[in-house]
Amino acid sequence: MLDYFFPNLLIGLREGLEAALVVSILVAYLVKTDRRNRLPLVWVGVGAAVVLAVAFGALLTYAVTGLDTFKQQELAGGFLSIIAVGLVTWMIFWMRRTARHLKAELTDKLEAAIAMGAGAVAFMAFLAVAREGLETTLFFFSAAQQADSELGPLLGFLVGIAIAVVLAFALYQGAVRINLGTFFTWTGALLVVVAAGIFAYGFHDLQEAEILPGLNTLAFDVSAQIPPDSWYGTLLKGIFNFQPQTTVLQAIAWVAYLVPVLTFFLWPSAKTPAQRTPEPAPAS
């Protein structure tokens, strides 16, 4: 169970903290400007976004598991994995690029929504969180579908979300202070490694669906040294989606994604002070 616990905890923590920081920025602005009467509208929007994300996850599960044949399930799973990796990669770089402007952008949109009316405030909060929620749900679904059991991925994801909420609340209250730029850099790099495994496994799914060739053309076979049912083999599969029998196409996909994405993400210019993620204002 713990093999798929840690990567999904990382997904829940990283993506959950992004969403929680968005909410904390909105709440802090309303408190600071003495508009506490608007807070319930923000929570209505946030609640609706959470419901949408959960419903989207249920729909994905029903749609994929409800397919008639194994090849159809592998085809759907493969395409969803590749799409999810594309979305999460875009979000990682988007956060790095817009981090220093995020607070100003959100508060400007919230101010405009307040001028338009109550419904606009709730809708603005909904849109701000829904984007994170839908992308996180798709990425979690893609990461979890390779697991032999649903308990490990779900438990890890929920624990990650819970830690993110507690951490965001502590930051909001000023109880703790962390360098969010450093936090998002390291978790982003780890998430890229996890995404590389999902990306490669997506191609393997498409090979099993007979959409792509080379299912029996192996880049290497270390199943004798790393048995798939061993604790370390299971752990490597859960964290990195590593397979002792890896096809040539899988290996190419893993390298083709990991090397350029991780290089660009960790490029020195990404670590300048201007790129640091702003911390939410403490409660007044």
Automatic annotation (TrEMBL):
Principal subcellular localization: membrane
Q: Which residues form a coiled coil?
A: none
- Which terms in the Gene Ontology molecular function aspect does this entry carry? ferrous iron transmembrane transporter activity
- Keywords attached to this entry: Membrane, Transmembrane, Transmembrane helix
Task: Show the Pfam families listed in the entry.
Answer: FTR1 (PF03239)
Mind telling me which GO cellular component terms the entry cites? high-affinity iron permease complex
Mode of membrane association: Multi-pass membrane protein
Localization per Swiss-Prot or TrEMBL = Membrane
Q: Which residue ranges traverse the bilayer?
A: 6-29, 41-63, 75-93, 113-131, 151-171, 183-203, 248-267
The keyword Nucleotide-binding belongs to this UniProt entry's keyword annotation: no
Q: Which family does it belong to?
A: Belongs to the oxidase-dependent Fe transporter (OFeT) (TC 9.A.10.1) family.
Please state what the protein is called.
FTR1 family protein
User: Which organism is the protein's source?
Assistant: Cryptosporangium phraense
